Amino acid sequence: MTGYDDVDRALLGALGGDPRATVVALADRLGLSRNTVQARMARLETSGAFLSFERSIDPVPIGYPLEAFVSVHLQQKRLTEVVAAVSQIPEVIQAHGLSGSVDLLVRVVCRDAHDLFRIDGEILAIGGVERTETSLAMGELIPYRLGPLLERPS
């Protein structure tokens, strides 16, 4: 599927607002038949429209109240090796390869400043990592969203 029609966009928008909505609830909300919603959902899933269905878990109640972003500068030819090693650090919850002056942006959670210092040290100890810059996250101001894109005329 290369594009979405208005029904697909409405369905994706409804799911963005209520990811746990049942097929019946989505059908009622959108004024569609249950079979239509089921067929569209199957087609959207097959096309790769959905990201992971893993639930997002707040790290604070499990003892990780701080979040930071570690900008990693590395030897380009060792990217695969560095990513493999970074993925073995349990406090790493996400990483993105970037273009520009930073090669890898790593999102970590930690218990306190000492824990963050330890995690940064683990990243720095990985072969191929040249240096890091760490920024403490002060708060999520705009959560991940696609609603505004789905509401935009196609």
TrEMBL record:
Domain HTH asnC-type: 4-65
Classification via Pfam families: AsnC_trans_reg (PF01037), HTH_AsnC-type (PF13404)
Protein name in the entry: AsnC family transcriptional regulator
Record flagged with keyword Transcription regulation: yes
A cellular-component GO term for this protein: cytosol
Entries under Gene3D superfamilies matching the protein: 3.30.70.920, Winged helix-like DNA-binding domain superfamily/Winged helix DNA-binding domain (1.10.10.10)
SMART domains: HTH_ASNC
Record-level Gene Ontology MF annotations: sequence-specific DNA binding
SUPFAM superfamilies: Dimeric alpha+beta barrel, Winged helix' DNA-binding domain
InterPro entries for the chain: AsnC-type_HTH_dom (IPR000485), Dimeric_a/b-barrel (IPR011008), Tscrpt_reg_AsnC-like (IPR019888), Tscrpt_reg_AsnC/Lrp_C (IPR019887), WH-like_DNA-bd_sf (IPR036388), WH_DNA-bd_sf (IPR036390)
UniProt keyword annotations, A-Z: DNA-binding, Transcription, Transcription regulation
PROSITE patterns assigned: HTH_ASNC_2
PANTHER family, A to Z: LEUCINE-RESPONSIVE REGULATORY PROTEIN (PTHR30154), TRANSCRIPTIONAL REGULATOR AZLB (PTHR30154:SF34)
Any one GO biological process: response to amino acid
